[in-house]
Amino acid sequence: xxxxxxxxxxxxxxxxxxxxxxVNKHFGALxxxxxxxxxxxxxxxxxxxxxxxxxKSTLCRAINRLETVESGTxxxxxxxxxxxGKELARLRADVGMVFQSxxxxxxxxxxxxxxxxxxxxxxAEKSAAEDKARKLLDRVGVGTQADKYPxxxxxxxxQRVAIARALAMDPKIMLFDEPTSALDPEMINEVLEVMQQxxxxxxxxxxxxxxMGFARSxxxxxxxxxxxxxxxxxxPDQFFxxxxxxxxxxxxxxxx
Length: 256
Ligand code: ADP
Ligand code: MG
Fold this sequence. Notes:
binds magnesium ion, EC 7.4.2.1
């Protein structure tokens, strides 16, 4: 830790939850994260967009340390990411992650999926974990599915269970990596609506998505990545109406 400083600038802003400073990572010769500087404030919804292969997933995975980085620093709540052990398990609980592929435990019921981490990582009592799981399942609209197995649910329902499971850990931030990309079109909105509600409730969120309607309505900030770099950061209005870089203009012309 740096020594206590009398200058205001040296201290992290009080509302800063996640900070990446000059982060770099390679996969072999590929420089997948290049000098990434990004801060995410409490309650902020940051939508990350960009072409396939630009490093969006790697960025998310670095924030909950599913990937290590080679240089730079990543802090959550002012603390550097832990390297291993119990501290790392706690970090993973603090940083909820929802993937494209729902990643539920296939041999556990929906209810058990949402209870497991509470009991194992947060050391909750079983009855308290069950109460909370049922409340969360209700909140994401799948309360009646509690005793089923994941394979008996639709993709949209499974993804909402995955969101409930992450929320059960009381995360400080939720990372969504293309949460609707694997869904049939008619199920996309039911998942986006749950995410919209979370955003309205004040959850800090990083969302990688190609759903530009969601970006426009839910994001406080859009981060546009290309070739491992953050090329633009702007409000959704600014970004969609007046993209500054040629890369962003080119990207938007292809998807809008
Ligand atoms: P995005 O999510 O924006 O599509 P990714 O972060 O998944 O991009 O990947 C960025 C680049 O890194 C891609 O070229 C991808 O092929 C490569 N990559 C991702 N994971 C690995 C890995 N584990 N080993 C080698 N290359 C990888
Ligand atoms: Mg990806």
